[in-house]
Each structure stands twice: as C-alpha cells, then as structure tokens.
Specification:
This protein has 9 helices and 7 strands. It binds S-adenosylmethionine.
Length: 209
C-alpha cells in the first residue's frame, strides 16, 4: 500500500493517528527493534512514564476516547518523548494491521470491567482476542494484565490455561503499571489489585509438553 505524504508527516511528528492512517503504521514500527503496545491507555499515566524509562523501545498507545488521546499526547509532549505513537480508535481495528510475531508485549491495565453477569460478554479479553495476541507476539512475548475485578483476573488466567500456549506469573508487572490512574484509584480505596503476566511459550517449550 502506498503511503500518502501527509500521513508520513503525521508519523514523523508522532501525531495522533486514526483508522485512516493505519497503512502508515509499519513506518513507525520498523524504526524499533522492540515494540510494545498498551491497549486502553486512558489518560496515559502508565504509557508516558514507561516510555520515558524505556526509551529504546517503540511504544504504541491505543485509546478509544479522543479527549483521553489528547491528554496522553500532552504528557508525551511535556516529556519530549520520541518513542510513542497514539492510535485513537478501537484496538480490534489496529490489531488486524500488525504482522504476526512482531510485538514484544501488550499491556492491558484495568480494561472496562463490565461487572454484571449479563455484561460480561462485552469484556475485551476473550478467547479469540487471546489467540490473536498469541499470533502477534514474538516468542517469549508478554501480555501484562491488571484489574481490580477478581473474576476478570480469573477469566484471563482460565483463558490462558485453556489455550495452553502461555505460562502465567502473578505479580510480575513493570513497576510503572502502578502509576496507571486506575491502579492509583485502587490503592487509594484500599482495594485489592489482581495482576498476571502471560508469557508466550516458545515452539521448543510447546514440543516438550
Ligand atoms: C478503565 S479505563 C483504564 C485506563 C488505564 N489503562 C488505567 O489503568 O488507568 C479503560 C480504558 O480503555 C479504553 N478502551 C475500552 N475499550 C477499548 C478498545 N476496544 N480499544 C481501545 N481502547 C479501549 C477506554 O476508553 C478507557 O480509557
């Protein structure tokens, strides 16, 4: 697909991109040997600090709400970061544009909980999504997850167990995850925080099973 010069300019300036700019995504991704993605970045509290501490990595933040994208952009500009691109839109849309085996990690912190039984089918992490993330991850790539909703945490662990191609570890998130707005709210309210890291098993590990 040819890239329109205007879109290339937006990538060079790290402006917020939308669905119509997705053809240009490889232009950003190929600049980095390691790429990590945060799905549902909210106001960017985690993303900005993590990007500052991980300057050698390319980071992509995905956020559905325009106002929140602008807040992330403000934080990134204030810190003069050159390694973060923000996608304003639905994560499902962006995930279809990535190459298999190209992503080092996904960060999913406090996805919308949909706590009522009837609403649970709206949760972002479901079996097809996990399969998709598995394909997109590099060998030993990671999915970092945190929630204050215990049964969402259990759901993620069970999905990973059923899939069989991930190893699960509790309490192994990057320290910056504690800076996410919802993590801070959880701490302030004295609530429990449930975390898990899923690590994609290598072909060798799968053969040993
Ligand atoms: C509960 S907030 C958590 C924000 C942040 N991760 C934190 O820990 O403070 C969930 C965020 O995910 C965003 N979101 C929900 N579904 C999404 C989707 N399919 N694609 C991109 N963002 C999404 C929402 O707009 C919201 O900002």
């Amino acid at each position: 697909m040819s890239i329109i010069p205007g879109i290339k300019r937006r990538i060079d300036r790290l402006e917020i991109i939308t669905a119509s700019d997705l053809a240009s995504l490889p232009l950003f991704l190929k600049r980095w040997s390691q790429v990590e993605i945060e799905i549902g970045s909210g106001n960017g509290h985690f993303l900005a600090q993590y990007a500052r501490n991980q300057a050698s990595k390319g980071l992509l933040g995905i956020e559905l709400k325009a106002k929140r994208c602008r807040k992330i952009q403000k934080k990134i500009s204030a810190l003069r970061l050159g390694n973060v691109l923000i996608f304003h839109g639905n994560a499902n849309q962006l995930l279809t544009c990535l190459y298999p085996g190209s992503i080092d990690a996904f960060h999913i912190y406090f996805p919308d909980p949909w706590p009522k039984t009837k609403q649970r089918k709206r949760r972002f992490i479901k079996q097809p999504l996990l399969k998709k993330l598995y394909l997109l991850l590099k060998p030993s790539g990671r999915i970092y997850f945190a929630s204050d909703v215990y049964d969402y945490f259990l759901q993620v662990r069970l999905l990973a167990l059923a899939d069989g191609r991930f190893s699960c570890f509790n309490n192994s998130l990057p320290p910056e995850a504690e800076l996410s707005l919802y993590a801070q709210k959880t701490y302030q309210h004295g609530q429990d925080l449930f975390t898990v890291t899923l690590i994609k098993k290598t072909d060798q590990e799968l053969e040993l099973k």
